[in-house]
Amino acid sequence: MSDLNKCPKCESYTMKSECPKCKVETKSAHYKFSKIKDAPSRRAGLKRR
Question: Cα-flanking dihedrals φ and ψ of residue 5, to 5°?
């Protein structure tokens, strides 16, 4: 219950699992990063000459 949630209907943020304004179940407000299979490593682009 300590995570920040966002209501998909009214787009308000709350710490509760149900929106206090419209009584709709809230979703996590944090973006989920998906893993890209063929992405180069982060170090590959940082090489200096």
Answer: -120, 155
